[in-house]
Amino acid sequence: MRYNCRGQESKFLTGFPTLLFVVVLISIFIGFSFTLAATKGALSAIAERGREYGNSFYQPINQPITIGTQETLVLDALLRVNSGDLKRQNFENGLHALLVPEPVGSCLVLALDRAPKSEVKSGQEARNDFYIIKETNATRAENFWVYLSLSEPYRRAGVLSETSVVLHDGTRMYIEYYFGRCVS
Amino acid sequence: MTEIKQSWGRRGDVAFVLVVVVTIAAILSAGMVMVTTEREFVKQTGAMSRLSSDAATLEAYATAVSTMVGSSEIRAGGENETLTERFMAKSREQESLLAGSKGFYERVIAPEAVQFIATDEGYSLYISAIPIIMVEGKHRMQRIMNLQITFDSQGNIHKVYKEYSV
Predict the structure, then answer these.
(1) What is the ipTM of this complex?
(2) Nearest to residue B160, comparing CAs of B62, B14, B73?
(3) pLDDT tens digits, residue range B33-82?
(4) Cα Rg of chain A (Å, integer)
(5) Do A167 and B99 touch (CB under 8 A)?
(6) How confident is the model at residue A3 (pLDDT cuts 50, 70, 90)?
(7) Using H for helix, E for strand and C for coil, what is the string for chain A?
């Protein structure tokens, strides 16, 4: 009988920590599973009311511009330039008007591309890039990513913001933008 | 007697070995499930993040178009009674290549969805149940947004309210 008791004790001493470890592990696993389930639900049920709009509303792509006689958003006009539905020059004229109320030394950068984080491009590749500078008595336009001397200071300063949009045909396009004091 | 005791001890050993084997199997299976789930979660997080960003872009777009057309109609200076009709007519002229914008444009030309009225403080534009639907692969995100924009008497934007329902 004494021999059996010792056996039981030793089994208990080795078995109990193992079982305890299993229980702890399973609890962590169940907790993790519930966390995942809660995340899935929250994404489709966000509710808020009375919140004032955030910065995205004031992005240059959401500003209204006038193309000819029609008022439109910069984003819609930029996508129409890309599709060939709107002439680059007409769009550029609309962008110039955005800088009229801004102080001298203000710059607007807009660059549309199929890939994120643009690099130096040829003139043809940069047909959807716009760089508008407000000077003393006029505004001037350049192709942003054609000239490294223009684009590099902005990249180095980390002021370029990027967003992406999906078109009707499922294509994702990336837009880099900046609107503020010129960086050189 | 000795044989009986030995047999009894062996049975106990078999049970103990089984406990150890089952424990190790449980740990390994739980670990595998956790690792697999985590990898799948990382993949889903990327897709959901893009969908969330696309939805935010579409919401900002809907708000910007509504604000632009609303301000324009207030500044045009027509009769207050025709504000809603004029807003819907002007919205119809907008063209967009943005995915998901179709749902917004269908709502802003629906008479039951748009209310644009003069108030004591200025003007109030309310558009109900704008669908914000984004799809990427097998992932889909859907929100229904009620949008209210208040303007001052000059057509300058005052406040934007958004309300969501599932």
Answers:
(1) 0.73
(2) B62
(3) 877 776 666 667 778 888 888 899 999 999 999 999 999 999 998 888 89
(4) 29
(5) yes
(6) low
(7) CHHHHHHHHHHHHHHHHHHHHHHHHHHHHHHHHHHHHHHHHHHCCCCCCCCCCCHHHHCHHHCEEEECCEEEEHHHHHHHHHHCCCCHHHHHHHHHHHHCCCCCCEEEEEEEECCCCCCCCCCCCCCCEEEEEECCCCEEEECHHHCHHHHHHHHHHCCCEEEEEEECCCCEEEEEEEEEECCC
Confidence of residue A63 (pLDDT cuts 50, 70, 90): very high
B93 contacts A70 by C-beta, under 8 angstroms: yes
- Contacting residues of B for A4, CB less than 8 Å apart: 8-9
A81-131 pLDDT per residue, tens? 999 999 988 998 899 888 888 889 899 988 888 888 766 666 666 678 888
pTM: 0.71
State whether B23 and A22 contact (CB < 8 Å): yes
**Do residues B104 and B58 lie in contact, with contact meaning Cβ atoms separated by under 8 Å?**
yes
Residues of B in Cβ contact (< 8 Å) with A14: 16
Joined tokens for residue A175: 């837009």
Name the domain count of chain B: 1
Distance, CA of B72 to CA of B67 (rounded, Å): 8
- Residues of A in Cβ contact (< 8 Å) with B100: 166
